[in-house]
Amino acid sequence: MADSAPTVPAALTTDAPLAIHSKQTVDPWNVSGETGADGVVKAINYHTLIEEFGTKKILEEDLVRFEKVTGHRPHRFMRRGIVFSHRDLNYILDRYERGEPFFLYTGRGPSSDSMHIGHTVPFEFTKLMSHRWLQDVFDVPLIIMLTDDEKYLFSESREIEDVQKYTAANVKDIIAIGFDPKKTFIFSDYEFMGGEFYKNVTRIQKKTTLNVAKAIFGFDGDFGAIQGATAFASSFPHIFGSDKSISSKIPSLIPCAIDQDPYFRMTRDVAHRLHFAKPALIHARFLDALQGPGSKMSASIDTSAIFMYDEPNKIRTKINKYAFSGGQVTEEEQRAKGGDTDKDVSYQYLTFFLEDDEELERIRVAYTTGKMLTGELKAKCIAELQVYVKGFQERRAAVTDELVEDFFSQKKLVFRGNPHPIAAAKEEVPEGSSDGPKELTKNQLKKLAKEKMIEEKRLAKLKEKEQKQAGDAIA
Amino acid sequence: MADSAPTVPAALTTDAPLAIHSKQTVDPWNVSGETGADGVVKAINYHTLIEEFGTKKILEEDLVRFEKVTGHRPHRFMRRGIVFSHRDLNYILDRYERGEPFFLYTGRGPSSDSMHIGHTVPFEFTKLMSHRWLQDVFDVPLIIMLTDDEKYLFSESREIEDVQKYTAANVKDIIAIGFDPKKTFIFSDYEFMGGEFYKNVTRIQKKTTLNVAKAIFGFDGDFGAIQGATAFASSFPHIFGSDKSISSKIPSLIPCAIDQDPYFRMTRDVAHRLHFAKPALIHARFLDALQGPGSKMSASIDTSAIFMYDEPNKIRTKINKYAFSGGQVTEEEQRAKGGDTDKDVSYQYLTFFLEDDEELERIRVAYTTGKMLTGELKAKCIAELQVYVKGFQERRAAVTDELVEDFFSQKKLVFRGNPHPIAAAKEEVPEGSSDGPKELTKNQLKKLAKEKMIEEKRLAKLKEKEQKQAGDAIA
Question: Which UniProt keywords apply (chains A, B) (predicted)?
Fold first, then answer.
């Protein structure tokens, strides 16, 4: 009925062997909590991430303002600290208050694996259906990017044709979460690359040298330029018009998992130098893997996650068999001491998927005081997940190719923004809007300092070459 | 009447100060002959380039075969060793003989500077008009690429809008040299990027790591992928159809100045690994700057070149004032010893632009035997250039925006290829078609060896990241 200390498959942890102490790692490719000397992986410490990344914690007062400005009660993800951090959220609220335009941007790297419940978090938070969330609260355009080119470039084995198959499947999964085609544009890089989008890609490439990318990503791929270009309204003239003096001032709000922050830190830095509006961000924590806190679900490890195609029985089996429990070893102990909801994966999942705050609180009290046993807690979790996944599967079955076409089509979008804006106040400059470099963490700034000299030499060399090359036929 | 030893402006020579001995440098950004201990820049040694680059000299027997296969007398550039080197030209002739398709690819980096007569050489050689050359001889599609994105990325100062203005002007200059819109597609990267072209760009990027690019270009820009993608027929489904099993087998023939060979060496290497037909190349030598052998015309130095917008008087003044002479110091000496046509810029220009072989030979004999004085030689050169430049200017004035549209439009092209093919023989594999790495020079292979280890580490890291990243939402 209860589990021993969590053992986390290596693939879910850092590169360091389990038994060896290792620090918490969170970046676009690695996510894992600190591994103690005992080899046990601790839960991700999200407060240290706020410090390390230099983001802002979402405070009670932010929630109060959010409700005041939007007239909507904050989403349970915000109420429960699942969406816990931001960059310039208040600037977006200022704009909404004044009825000034902005848009939402999220995305996904299409992969052969079916999505798991962890993948749905940013989309759930972004979407409007059932829980009626961000896109509906703000009633603004939503742009969803599918990075098929990155999935090809970064894969040793995949061909473009493979990745395009995944794109076709994944887009239906995303649509099944529930978005409004009238105000949503979904694109894949291979389909959309070109025009103003490509121009912005090269603008970013020119401003972010490979060395900056190296400092941020730890390797010299400059793919960030393509993810970055999607954060700029001028990449989408069919939505925001072709007058750059207007579109360049329209910012995006990017709901993303905290591990994606480095990409957009670079984008914010460049936006400043390109005189484009800086994207704002709200960061979600991760849904723990079944194996417990400190691990992240992996699309390639079936036993690490509940997948959106799992049948009800499979969901029951996975939760009962794998969901790490915060309960005590024996029923007696559990009755006496109660369980630990912070460590309990089933409870964590309920905080993500159970809408009713009072019900959740009843469960928390019952479990921590020993009135509720792990089996009962798991049963509640199983029931919630079965409903959630079943709903998804029904919507997924209803997604037609025509609907996909509609989302992909480069059409004008229909959105209202704030129906009752207040008189436009003097434009407030978002905090940190002129602090591009501050977007980098201390370590990255150190790395950059090192790279700077090399970089200047490189530029000098390029300039020289350019002069020599000026106007010469290439062939 | 005669000149002292040539003094070449620094901008036309290598980075080394004039007075210091320096080796010959020829790459896409630097072209200059060896500078002797005396500080005098020697003529480019094209034979050492053939060795260094690993290309093949165009031999008398190649010319004979060319005439036999095409039924056309070799262009004066070939007859006179101006087009002196190739890669797989015989493979292209094999295909032509069998009536198998291929296409011509040339291009230009649009710049603010007006084109000079040096820029026109690859186009003159490629075009069909007046001298009725390659495109007409073969009657195959011609693709002309304008690398506006590269000109933006590699410039410290230019904005995309600037580069696009240059593109609009430069394309009219190119059209004025004379091409057939029915079988020519001209595009700029900013206009054309996307679709199958972008897919091939990423295919090349994936196969050519930054380290390979570094080894070839000496810096880590991977722009070669975009120039490379244009060498593959599958980038142009509107011309070659969307069946890759066919288009991937259609090679290009790239007439280019020898300094551009490194780009396409990389492309040939990658083509092999992508199972695309390798592009073939024919290399032209440079038109010497007015200042003499060993220097290259510069679009940014007016006195280094005859520009296509120079008025007749300006042409006369430039030749009389700046054209380095191979003549003797006094008329008496010239009458006695005769002049040196190898060093004489006016004579060199005549070899490029005077079509009549017998007339050219009469001039050579008269000048080298002292019967002709430098003034008379310059007068003949001036007359030829005035006619050539005037003809260009008249055609340029006639280029309409509608005509430009026609060249830019993605339409089916009309071409016949070989009207009398011989029965298709067994497909001959182009020499070196499986020797991708051999396309690199010794130095580059050395550099590559060094880079290889780093590279393998990088790939291992990427693979690991990929596994972690698989299927994770990017935002």
Answer: Aminoacyl-tRNA synthetase, ATP-binding, Cytoplasm, Ligase, Nucleotide-binding, Protein biosynthesis
Shortest distance, CA B176 to any CA of chain A (angstroms): 15
Q: Please provide residue B344's backbone torsions phi and psi, each rounded to the nearest 5 degrees.
A: -80, 115
Q: Residue B472 corresponds to which tokens in the numbers above?
A: 């994770």
DSSP H or E segment with residue B255: strand B252-257
- Smallest Cα distance from A331 to chain B, Å: 37
Q: Which residues of B touch A123 (CB under 8 A)?
A: 473
Query: Inter-chain contact A156–B466, Cβ cutoff 8 Å?
Result: yes
Q: Indicate the burial class of A420 (C-beta count within 10 angstroms; 0-12, 13-18, 19 or more).
A: exposed
- CB–CB of B248/B16 below 8 Å? no
CB contact (8 A) between residue A473 and residue B203: no
In this structure, are strands A103-108 and A142-146 parallel, antiparallel, or unpaired? parallel
End-to-end CA distance of chain A: 73
Is the complex ipTM more than 0.95? Answer: no
Residue A7, token pair as written in the block:
């053992």
Measured between CA atoms, the residue of chain B closest to residue A126 is B475
Contact A468 B298 (CB under 8 A): yes
Other Cβ atoms less than 10 A from the Cβ of A219: the count is: 16
Q: At a CB cut-off of 8 Å and minimum separation 6, what does A84 contact? A: A46, A50, A57, A58, A258, A283, A284, A285
Q: Which of B394, B380, B385, B398 is nearest to B314 (CA)?
A: B385
Q: Structure tokens of B63?
A: 């010319």
Q: Nearest chain A residue to B205 by CA: give it.
A: A153
B470 with A153: Cβ contact below 8 A: no
Rounded-to-integer distance, Cα A216 and Cα A440, Å? 8
User: Who's near A277: CB < 8 A, 6+ residues apart?
Assistant: A232, A233, A248, A249, A250, A251, A252, A271
Q: Are A20 and A338 in contact (CB under 8 A)?
A: no
The torsion angles phi and psi of A108, rounded to 5 degrees, stand at -160, 145
From CA A148, how far away is CA A292, in angstroms rounded?
A: 31
**Closest chain B C-alpha to A114 CA, distance in angstroms:** 8
Nearest chain A Cα distance for residue B359, angstroms: 30
CB contact under 8 A, B474 and A108: yes
Q: Could you tell me which residues come within 8 angstroms of residue A460 by beta carbon, excluding any fewer than 6 positions away?
A: none
d(C-alpha B262, C-alpha A41), whole Å: 51
B230 near B105, Cβ under 8 Å?
A: yes
With beta carbons less than 8 A apart as the criterion, state whether A387 and A306 touch: no
Is A462 close to B154, i.e. CB distance below 8 A? yes
Ordered per-residue pLDDT tens for chain A, 475 residues: 333 333 333 333 334 344 466 788 877 767 777 887 777 778 888 888 899 899 999 999 999 999 999 998 999 999 999 999 999 999 999 999 999 999 999 888 777 667 778 777 777 777 533 334 677 788 899 999 999 998 888 777 889 999 999 999 889 988 988 888 999 999 999 999 999 999 999 898 888 765 555 555 554 445 578 889 999 999 999 999 999 999 999 999 999 889 889 888 889 988 988 999 999 999 998 888 999 987 778 888 899 999 989 999 999 999 999 999 999 999 999 999 999 999 999 999 999 999 999 999 999 999 999 999 999 999 999 999 999 999 999 999 999 999 999 999 999 999 888 888 986 555 555 544 444 445 556 666 666 566 565 556 655 665 565 555 444 433 3
d(CA A220, CA A215): 9
Nearest to B352 by CA among B42, B33, B13, B116: B116
Q: What is the dihedral of CA A94, A97, A98, A103, to 10 degrees?
A: 70
Do A181 and A405 contact (CB within 8 A), yes or no? no
E strands, A220-370, where?
Answer: 252-257, 280-284, 288-289, 292-296
Of A296, A258, A294, the residue nearest A51 (C-alpha): A258
